[in-house]
Design brief:
heterodimer, A: 169 residues, mainly alpha, Four Helix Bundle (Hemerythrin (Met), subunit A), 6 helices, B: mainly alpha, 2 domains, 16 helices, 73% helix
C-alpha cells in the first residue's frame, strides 16, 4: 500500500465517522460542527485527487458560508443552546434505505468500471488545472451556457432574498 | 555547499532523506517524515516570532501613546514576553460550568491553527516555501473561514451573552468584508496571470501597488476587518461588550487568542506586501541569496504589521451599522468596479508599451478613488443633515 492510499483511507474513515456523528449528535450546534469536520475531510479528499481549486472552494463555500449560516440560524432560533430534541422522526428508515441503495449503486458502478483500486494519475509538469477550468467556463464549446444560466439563477435567488427580507419602514 | 546557499531547503531535505534511507527507512516513509519535520520546524519558528511580536506590539503601542512600554526586564524589555507567558501559564484556568467543554477548549486551538495554516503558502524566498499552491490567493480566504469558525465556537460554547453577541458581531464583519477582500485579491491575480503567490511575487517587476494603489488600500482595509482589529474590533469591543467572544477565557487559552491575533496581523502584513509590494523582491537582493530574500520578506511583513498597528492605535472603533453600511454600500461596489476596470484595461493594453500600461492603470485607480471619495463625502454630508434633524412624527432625540 502506498502512502497516498494510507492517507486516503484515514481521511475517508474520518469523513464517514464525522458524517455519522452529524446524524447521531443530539445538540444541533455540535451536529453542525461535525458537519464542518465532514466537509473539511471531503476537501482533503479533493486535495488528494490533485483538485486543489475544488478543495479550496469547498472550504470557502461550504465551511465559510453554508456551515456558518447553519450555526447562525441555530443560535438565533434556539433560546437554550444546550437544547436537545428527538433526533429521528418516523421516516428515518426511509432515509437510511435510500442512503444504502445509493451506496450499493455507486459500489456496483465503481467495481464494474474495473478502476476500483486506481491511484490518482501523476499530473504532467506545468499542468495548470485552474487555467483549464477557467477556459472551460468561458469557452463557447464547453460550459459557458451552464455557467451563465447558473449565475442568472443565483442572481434571481439573490434578488428574491432581498425582496423577502426587505421591509419598507 | 554552493548548492546549499542557492536552495537550502531542498539540500537539507535531500540530505535528511538520504540519512534516513541509509538507516533502512523506506523512501516514501522518509519523505513523509521529512515533510512533517519541515512543518514542525516552520510552526516552531512562527511561534518564536509570535513571542517576539508580543514585545513589538507592546513597544509600538507605547510609542503611539507617548509611553516607554516594557523596559524593566532585560535590554529594552526584551524578556517581557517570557514574563507574560509565565504569568499566563500560572493563572487559574477557568472553564464556565455550563460551557460546552470540548468546543470551548477547541476554539483557541482552531484560532491558532487557522493562522498557522496561512503560512503554508507564504513564499519566504523563491525556493523557500512550503507549497506553491496554484490557488494561493483563494487559500487565504479558505483559512479565513476557519478562523471565523473558531470565533463562533468560542462565542457559542462560553454560554455567556457577551461572548455570543461578540461572536455574532465579529462573524457579521468577517463574512461581509470577505467580499471586497476577494475582489481585491483578484487584482494581483489578474495582473500576474496566476493565483499562486510565488507567481504573483515573480510577476512584480513593477510593484502592483503602483498599478493598483486603490486595490492595495481596499485590501488593507478588508484585511484589518478580517483581523478584527480597531477600527473594526466588533467582536471584542471592550467598552461595549466587555471582551466579546473571548470574555470567559483565562490564562493560556486567552493567550492563544491573543497570540493568534498578533500572528494573524503579522501574517496579513506579509500578505499585503506579497500581493502589492513585491513580496521578497527588493532591488534584486532576492537573486543574491535566498537567505537575503527571507530577510527582505520578514522585514516587509514587519512593515505591513506596523501599518496595521498604526491604524489600530490611532483610530476609534466604528459603530457596527456604520461599518456594515460602509462595507456593503461603499467598499464592495468599489472593489468590484475596480476589479472590472483593471481586468478590462489589462486585456486592452496588455500589448501596449509599459509606460502607457502603467500610466493608464494608475490613472484609472486615481480617478475611481477620487470619484468614490467625492460620492462618500456627499453621502456623509446628507447623512449628517438627516441625523441632526429629528424625524417627523417622532419626538426629538428619539
Amino acid at each position: 500500500m502506498t502512502i497516498q492510499q494510507v492517507i486516503f483511507l484515514l481521511v475517508a474513515l474520518a469523513t464517514l465517522g464525522s458524517a455519522l456523528k452529524v446524524v447521531t449528535t443530539g445538540n444541533l450546534v455540535r451536529a453542525a460542527l461535525w458537519l464542518v469536520a465532514t466537509l473539511f475531510f471531503v476537501a482533503v479528499i479533493y486535495a488528494l485527487l490533485n483538485a486543489g481549486f475544488l478543495a479550496v472552494v469547498q472550504v470557502v463555500i461550504y465551511i465559510g458560508a453554508i456551515a456558518i449560516l447553519f450555526i447562525f440560524a441555530v443560535m438565533l432560533t434556539r433560546s437554550d443552546q444546550r437544547d436537545r430534541g428527538p433526533q429521528h422522526n418516523r421516516g428515518w428508515w426511509v432515509g437510511a434505505l435510500v442512503a444504502l441503495l445509493a451506496f450499493a449503486a455507486l459500489l456496483v458502478v465503481l467495481v464494474g468500471s474495473g478502476q476500483f483500486a486506481r491511484l490518482a494519475p501523476e499530473l504532467p509538469e506545468g499542468f495548470d488545472a485552474v487555467a483549464l477550468l477557467g477556459d472551460a467556463l468561458i469557452s463557447a464549446d464547453a460550459y459557458v451556457l451552464p455557467f451563465e444560466v447558473a449565475s442568472v439563477l443565483l442572481l434571481a435567488a439573490l434578488v428574491g432574498a432581498v425582496y423577502v427580507a426587505f421591509s419598507r419602514r | 555547499m554552493q548548492e546549499f546557499l542557492t536552495d537550502p531547503l531542498k539540500v537539507a531535505a535531500d540530505w535528511l532523506i538520504g540519512v534516513l534511507g541509509a538507516w533502512g527507512m523506506p523512501a516514501a516513509a522518509a519523505i513523509v517524515l521529512v515533510s512533517f519535520l519541515g512543518i514542525f520546524l516552520l510552526i516552531a519558528l512562527l511561534m518564536l516570532v509570535d513571542i517576539f511580536l508580543v514585545w513589538v506590539e507592546r513597544k509600538v503601542v507605547a510609542r503611539f501613546q507617548d509611553r516607554l512600554g516594557p523596559n524593566r526586564v532585560g535590554p529594552f524589555g526584551l524578556i517581557q514576553p517570557f514574563a507574560d507567558i509565565i504569568k499566563l501559564l500560572i493563572k487559574e484556568d477557568i472553564t464556565p460550568s455550563v460551557a460546552d467543554k470540548v468546543v470551548y477548549n477547541l476554539a483557541p486551538m482552531l484560532a491558532m491553527m487557522a493562522v498557522l495554516m496561512l503560512w503554508a503558502v507564504v513564499p519566504l524566498a523563491p525556493v523557500i516555501l512550503s507549497v506553491d499552491l496554484n490557488v494561493g490567493a483563494l487559500y487565504l480566504i479558505a483559512a479565513g473561514a476557519i478562523s471565523t469558525l473558531a470565533i463562533i465556537m468560542a462565542g457559542w460554547s462560553s454560554q455567556n451573552k457577551y461572548a455570543l453577541i461578540g461572536a455574532f458581531r465579529q462573524v457579521a464583519v468577517l463574512v461581509s468584508f470577505e467580499i471586497p477582500m476577494v475582489a481585491t485579491l483578484l487584482i494581483p491575480a489578474i495582473l500576474a496571470g496566476t493565483m499562486g503567490l510565488n507567481g504573483i511575487v515573480q510577476a512584480q517587476d513593477t510593484w502592483f501597488v503602483f498599478l493598483a494603489p486603490l486595490g492595495a488600500l481596499i485590501f488593507l482595509i478588508a484585511a484589518i476587518a478580517e483581523l478584527g482589529r480597531v477600527p473594526f474590533d466588533m467582536g471584542e469591543a471592550e467598552s461595549e461588550i466587555v471582551a466579546g467572544f473571548n470574555v470567559e477565557y483565562s490564562g493560556m487559552k486567552f493567550g492563544m487568542f491573543y497570540a493568534s491575533e498578533l500572528l494573524h496581523a503579522f501574517t496579513f502584513g506579509g500578505f499585503w506586501m506579497i500581493m502589492f509590494f513585491g513580496g521578497y523582491r527588493f532591488l534584486g537582493l532576492e537573486k543574491v541569496s535566498p537567505f537575503l530574500a527571507v530577510a527582505v520578506m520578514l522585514a516587509k511583513a514587519m512593515l505591513g504589521y506596523w501599518v496595521i498597528m498604526w491604524v489600530k492605535y490611532t483610530m476609534m472603533r466604528i459603530r457596527i451599522d456604520h461599518m456594515l453600511a460602509f462595507n456593503w454600500k461603499f467598499l464592495t461596489p468599489l472593489a468590484l468596479l475596480l476589479m472590472l476596470v483593471m481586468a478590462f484595461l489589462h486585456v486592452l493594453l496588455r500589448d501596449a508599451s509599459g509606460l502607457l500600461y502603467g500610466a493608464s492603470m494608475f490613472g484609472a485607480n486615481v480617478i475611481i478613488g477620487l470619484v468614490a471619495l467625492e460620492a462618500a463625502r456627499r453621502h456623509s454630508r446628507r447623512e449628517r443633515v438627516r441625523v441632526s434633524r429629528p424625524a417627523e412624527g417622532q419626538p426629538a432625540g428619539a
